[in-house]
Design brief:
Number of helices: 5
Oligomer: single chain
Order of helices and strands: HHHHH
Structural class: mainly alpha
Largest sheet: none
Distance between the termini: 42 Å
Shape: elongated
Radius of gyration: 15 Å
């Protein structure tokens, strides 16, 4: 897949999440249940492959990781 195809798929998923109804917890469950989380994971794995091949995925991959919430590791908590 190329960067444009991945971006289109990602945008489609974004719009799907916007249609979900319910509380945050209910929407989170729906994201997992209908496979959106799995689809996002696959898309970002493809971005990784593009990055490795240096075909345009690097900037999108970097952008994605700047948006991800930081998770504290056990050593940061202790």
């Amino acid at each position: 897949m190329n960067i444009d195809e991945l971006a289109r798929k990602e945008l489609e998923l974004y719009f799907k999440t916007g249609l979900l109804k319910g509380t945050i917890e209910e929407r989170s469950d729906q994201i997992v249940y209908i496979g959106i989380a799995k689809e996002y994971r696959a898309i970002h794995q493809e971005y990784s492959i593009l990055k490795q091949n240096k075909t345009g995925g690097a900037s999108r991959w970097t952008f994605y990781f700047h948006l991800r919430p930081l998770r504290k590791t056990k050593t940061q908590i202790d």
